[in-house]
Amino acid sequence: MRTVKLSKILPASRTNIEANYWSITVDYRGKGFYSSYTQYMSILKFLIFLLVCFFCALPVYASEPDTTWNDCNTSECQTAQDPQLRAFINKRLNFYNSVFPDIFFIHLPNHDQWIDSILALEMLLGYQATSLDFEHPTKLSEDLLYVTVARIQKMLLYGHSAAFLFRVGVQAVAKRENVCVITMNPDAIASSSRAASDYMLAVPLDTLDTLPVKYQLDGMQLLEFIIDHEVSHCLDSYYNGPVPMSAKDFWGHFMHYKREMLADTFALARHVSQYGNNSQFIQNFINMRRLCLITGDPGTCSANTLSDLIDNNISKLSNKSVAELFKLVTELRLTDNFEYDQFVNYLFASIKAMQLLKVELDESCIGLTKPEGYTLNKQLILNILDESKKSYRLLFSTELEAQPYE
After folding, report:
1. Listing from the earlier edge strand, what are the strands of the sheet with 130-131?
2. Which pLDDT band holds residue 368 (cuts at 50, 70, 90)?
3. Which residue range(s) make up the domain with 255?
4. If you write DSSP's letter for every residue of 160-193 in order, what string do you get?
């Protein structure tokens, strides 16, 4: 049995969720979590009595804010509980909580806190919650939920940034019908401009050391950008619907690309509305996105999309509320005319370019190296390589090595 204070996970403004006390115990049994609930103060008092007398597990309940993690002793964890950094994240998410009243946005702590985060997630969602990010047959709802929680666990363990939207089930602690769960490692993002740049670039540390300060990303601005990016994924699922099902071979890659473009565009629009369009962060970020092939994910190559926003649509960002900005970037996605067949050609060209750059391919890309029924577009491959080389030369004042294309 493992229990945790809800106040360790929830932002301070959400800890007083129940007017009366809830006593919630969570039991992990392999494939799922099983929760038992009671509102009786007598049981809560009894459990507290057991805690005091026998050092048994403390029941989870809504209480006053608790900004420390008593069971987190490593230096990495202690850095992660920086009150200023946590307050910064909560302030950003609470802003979205005020703008979109149908969704509760929450960040789950990662690494050593992942078990506590998963337990808090179970309490928030309740029983028979539904994952809203992917279209699926009703009979597979429970399976999708298990898979989604497993993905969240992986993201928490490795400190990856991601977002997941759920509709709560019965007996949920969350008071809103929908919960947006965000995972990320704020220390790896915001501790310094060097750390922020390292987060975006998969280059050796000795190469990173040659990156001039003027081309580095401001850590706190990147943290804001990533929060906005992940929030956009939840807004995308809520307002535009889940990723639709399709029998097309590369539909998953295509939808990943489309959703990443929208999320980056929304985050950049938010940045412009806050800092203006002359921010050094904008060009630095776009240049780093042009090196997306080095990171091994062609689905995040948003540089051209972001440049188009700045060059051709910047006037449309003026005097827009956050909701209006999201509506705008959704409309821009609908009119980008980059359809499935074009994307497939781009995908295969990108994979070939990655091979020429000697980038190690992950499992999702290995099977795309020899596309059956498709002819590689040599000029597209050369254009993709040229863009990567230009940005690399600008940032590091040296050439990006690539094998010749034959």
Report:
1. 103-108, 178-183, 162-167, 130-131
2. confident
3. 222-406
4. --EEEEEE--BT-S-SSSEEEEEE--HHHHHS-H
With contact defined as beta carbons under 8 Å apart, do 234 and 105 qualify?
yes
| Residue 225, token pair as written in the block | 């950008």
Rg (CA), the chain: 23
CA 128 to CA 145: how far, in whole Å? 9
Distance CA 295, CA 298 (A): 8
- Between β-strands 32-38 and 178-183, what pairing exists: parallel, antiparallel or unpaired? unpaired
Give the C-alpha distances (Å, rounded to integers) separating 133 from 245, 346, 377, 382, 405: 11, 25, 33, 35, 39
- Inside any domain, residue 164: no
β-strand pairing of 103-108 with 178-183:
parallel
How many structural domains comprise the chain?
1
Structure confidence at residue 210 as a pLDDT band (50, 70, 90): very high
In-domain check, residue 42: no
The encoded tokens of residue 393 equal: 């030369």
Is residue 335 in a domain?
yes
CA distance 370 to 373: 9
Helix 83-99 crosses helix 219-240 at what angle (to 10 degrees)? 30
Regarding pTM above 0.85, the answer is no
User: Residue 78 domain-assigned?
Assistant: no
